[in-house]
Amino acid sequence: MDFVIRNASLADGRHGVDIAIEGERIAAVGANLPARGVREIDAGGDLVSPPFVDAHFHMDATLSYGLPRVNESGTLLEGIALWGELKPQLAQEALIERAMQYCDWAVARGLLAIRTHVDVCDDRLLAVEALLEVKRRVAPYIDLQLVAFPQDGLLRSAGAFDNLKRAIAMGVDVVGGIPHFERTMAQGAESVRLLCEFAADKGLMVDLHCDETDDPLSRHIETLAYETQRLGLQGRSTGSHLTSMHSMDNYYVSKLIPLIAEAGVAAIANPLINITLQGRHDSYPKRRGMTRVPELLAAGVPVAFGHDCVMDPWYGLGSGDMLEVAHMGLHVAQMTGQAAMRQCFLAVTETPARILGLQDYGIAPGCHADLVLLDAGGPVEAIRLRAARRLVMRRGQVVSEAPPMRASLQLPGRPESVDFRLTRKE
Ligand code: FE2
User: Fold this and answer.
1) Where exactly are the structural domains of the chain?
2) Architecture of the domain spanning 3-50+362-408
3) 326 alpha-carbon distance from chain centroid
């Protein structure tokens, strides 16, 4: 074997597991494997997980915080306006450089697959060209999936649909949209129909920014579920954000969630951004704004957590840490039970991997040797500590390493150091 990791814990609760790697694949997983590795490391009971996956991101805007100015109101709409100010000034090389820097951060965080929306409401399609170049450059270490995203509205922005079609022809993977930003509810529903028909015709996945608003009557997710079912897009269709569901009437939602489940539509919440941007017009009580994650999960709807933004016109924080995303999602959704906290870990690993359609993902024989060794005994501790990534592996090669989190103490009669860990097994 090229590499053997001894005595690991897995996110499904198994402990004392060895993982043997041959070439770019996992060859064996089990207790006390007899295989010897050219290189062996002792996980010491720490968690080995498949890599983090971000199902919703905007890489064309990332790390542009403060350009050309800061979002003073902190609202979604000022963010969109600010991005509109920045767009004509975008230079391709600078955009590529910012995206490449973010991908460096992602690798160091064990984030090795990202679905990023890319704005197509610019006739030059400069950001599309730039992110296709980034996708090519990072392919050895990150699976980058691009969504053609008409930020200013498919119907509201002149030429947006033609640009979206051109972007798909250039190699963009997924059909995007933003129905709540169209001029009317009817136009929003029309955009959902057009986009789903286009996706069905081309055999593509569809992932719409859907109802990212506090308006309880913004119900494009209903249309998305309907069109998904009508056109046979089950399993290839995703509603991103769905924040209006937070504000909807409970009776209506009792009908809506089964329709989403029946249609096979996946959901992506973006906890850091939803808790920051939603409820901005409220005084008190102030709505949290994140979609109904536990209720969707209970109905069998796959729910992933996305990062959405890192240091861009909408959000001035973040560092590519999907454990920070899971941590916020857990709190906002009040998912504090043990099983619920584990679901939050899956929402940044296995669930988005399924939504993106990643092949051979997981810690099992035959899967890609892509993994993260965390400075934590299990998934809940990993979220609690936003644990250090001791080792990140891609296709059998170590691509990043970091020291575990430790602090020394100078206290009489107390230990010399702390690691914030409890020895209890998860
Ligand atoms: Fe987004």
Assistant:
1) 3-50+362-408, 52-356
2) Roll (2.30)
3) 10
DSSP string of 52-94? EEEEEE-TTTTT-TTSS---SS--HHHHHHHHHHHGGG--HHH
How much distance in Å is there from the Cα of 56 to the middle of ligand 1? 6
CA of 405 to the centre of ligand 1 (A): 32
Secondary structure (3-state) at 207: strand
Measure 308 CA to ligand 1 centroid, in angstroms. Answer: 5
**Four-residue CA torsion sign, 185, 151, 178, 326:** negative
What pLDDT, in 10s, does the model give residues 60-117?
999 999 998 999 888 888 998 999 999 888 899 999 999 999 999 999 999 999 999 9
Please, which residues have CB within 8 angstroms of residue 354's CB and are 6 or more apart in sequence?
A: 266, 302
What SS3 class is residue 360? Answer: coil
CATH 3.20.20.140 given to domain 52-356? yes
Cα separation, 24 vs 360, whole angstroms: 11
- φ and ψ at residue 296, rounded to 5 degrees: -65, -45
Calpha distance 86→116 (Å, rounded):
19
pLDDT in tens, 265-288: 999 999 999 999 999 999 999 999
In this predicted structure, what is the pLDDT of residue 425?
67
Can you read off the two tokens belonging to residue 259? 């329709």
Around ion ligand 1, residues with a beta carbon closer than 5 Å are 308
Distance CA 62, CA 98 (A): 7
Interatomic CA distance for residues 3 and 275, integer angstroms: 42
pLDDT average, residue stretch 115-132: 97
Span 122-135, average pLDDT? 96
Q: How far is the CA of 116 from the centre of ligand 1 (A)?
A: 9
